[in-house]
Amino acid sequence: MLSKLRSFGVSGIDGYMVTVETHISGGLPAFDIVGLGDNAVKESRERVRSAIKNNNFTYPSSRITVNLAPADIRKSGAVFDVPIMLGILECTDSVPKISENYAFAGELSLDGYVRGINGALSMALCAKENGTTHLFLPAENANEASVVTGINVYGISHISQIVDFLKGSCQLSPHIYQPDTVAESFLDFKDVKGQEEAKRALEIAASGLHNICLSGPPGSGKSMLAKRVPSIMPPMTLTESIETTKVHSMAGLLRQNSGLVTQRPFRSPHHSVSTAALTGGGPWAKPGEISLAHNGVLFLDELPEFHRDALEALRAPLEDNRVVVARANQTHIYPSNIMLVGAMNPCPCGYLGDDFHQCTCNANQLDRYRSKLSGPLMDRIDIFVNVASVKYEELAGDDCEAESSEDILKRVLAARSMQAERFKGMDISSNASIPPALVKELCRTTKGAQNILEKAFKSMGLSARSYDKILKVARTIADLEQSPLIEEMHMLEAVQYRNFDRKF
Asked: Which residue ranges make up each domain of the chain?
């Protein structure tokens, strides 16, 4: 007696097909699960046995062997409970022969109820690619998976629903996707008094998806500014929503019955975060904060207070827009196309260069503080802006209201529209993503702008990476002005955002 059913596993954020083979043979009663499963997979034996008996099905007093193929890929989690139970029921003729166009995934409780799983969207996409027409998932994951068109997704609350459906004694209707109506309200830039230079820099960063660092004394509004960045970022495309939802689904961060993630993530980990929590990894190779911020903003407040090894681990993901977590048996790849926003004090006491307070740090303290941030890491930040203390007149003045996020977003969208036209037919999403081979072609300058860049390169001792980043930032500034060429004023503004090259 042999049964073969389709199910799915997830590696990184991508699903892969798993064939659940169930064989019942003679011999002493036993229940073995093979196929490189972890402890959660092996514990399926007890959940499946209890669910079968508690629902009055026949549990065979024979040798049961379950193979999860392919056997060379490590399986994890309890997603195979449902197909394992159905495989046993098919072998004992408790249900008719199950079609090869059906696929199943879900965790069982001891009484047969089906619990939610992680990675349902990735499984649905894999099901479509492999020709599956009917996908049975836990009810709380059905809305997430039903965004995939071309397959029928059924939400199951109890194993008896699948059994009755297979027997033909009841009908199940495919789940119809319901968009998530719970919208998060963003903080608005109109609440920020003064800081026009910092707002301008953040507008440029959002327009080109450039990494930015804000430096200034305590209380100058760095965190306040950073938390409002999502309000001026363009709406997510469908492709971006699917990618982000896959990451959040794997991390188990989606609400029950939620749909696609439609608002750009904003992640702000504490500075005590470990390297694995920030970049991804750990015992289960889960996505880290940089991947959870994919297509959104990763805000690192008090940047020099983060562990040195955690910050250094960001260098490759910031450059490659992905995180590679290597393990003995397999490698997981998580996306990390983010806008990094860092905030820091200029010195340990925080008041270096402040007009209202005296800095108390000596040269040795200042050197130790700055040494926490390596040159190669800071070289990956496109824009560095000083945030000065807000004056009393700016805080107390009621003459005019600060510009709203809605007004800033209009200019950002216009700049992004210009970029979309420029990158048509290319796998480039923003100016910050322009590959080095295309920088010269896509960032064309006037003769005067090129002369300014040449002088800055020689006088500031810039690296080749800094040269590219200045051109990309200048290209974004020109886009905000709807200019086809990078002109002198665009280049001058871009160069002054690299003033940290003199410090690190």
From this structure: 2-167, 189-401
